[in-house]
């Protein structure tokens, strides 16, 4: 049985939310007193090339459930401080050998990936510098990855004597194809983002590192201003929560779209189109969901919490 967690009390400002210091949160534009539709999460260990730590896991598991239930937040942008996005696990800290029973262990990268994946607000990753290991795998649940042309990226697990984590054995072959994924993890090599082995993993590649975050924020703003959060979440769920056949997909899509016909967001989207203006989508993701959601079997890694009281739109 998956027990319901305590409701989340939403902050008046994410810039005031306490973190461990290994992750920094800001509004966009930074310094805006109220919560903004676009929120920036920054890996904040530039002196250590943003090497991954257990403290980062705690911050992600605190922040992303908040974003999930906060209707003020529409899109999350994830980036790194300094010249490197993430140098992988902090090898000076190590991997915590022998601390958990095998049956009890849940890898930190996987906990971060699930926090991003289960958050119904989309994440865009601005990879302004190089990334390897968990620095790559944590980005796979995002909707968009923007890379730096001169950066170096790789899935180096085999060269460190470990294996894929962060749910990447699920995400990576679905994003780049099994052949490319096999090449990347079997060689453990580090490549420029233009390498054919990455397929379309990087949605955009920019020649100047300083362009990466502004482009991610531009895309995030466009999505926040023009896309229904409910539609966005359901579209991603329809793709990731695989039904296994075209016929099963047809049945689920039919049930979901039938529910969305006549919804407030559908009416607003059509009205905005005819009136040549930006839409004002207001559907709450927890109110009146399609009756078929979830159509997938929930796996017991902990149920998502609800918001404590209404968030201010």
Automatic annotation (TrEMBL):
Q: Where is this region: Disordered?
A: 281-313
Q: Which Gene3D superfamilies match?
A: 2-enoyl-CoA Hydratase, Chain A, domain 1, Lyase 2-enoyl-coa Hydratase, Chain A, domain 2
Offer one Pfam family short name for this entry: ECH_1
Q: Which residues cross the membrane?
A: none
Q: PANTHER family from the entry?
A: ENOYL-COA HYDRATASE_ISOMERASE FAMILY PROTEIN (AFU_ORTHOLOGUE AFUA_1G01890) (PTHR43684:SF4), PTHR43684
Q: Which family does it belong to?
A: Belongs to the enoyl-CoA hydratase/isomerase family.
Name of this chain's protein: Enoyl-CoA hydratase
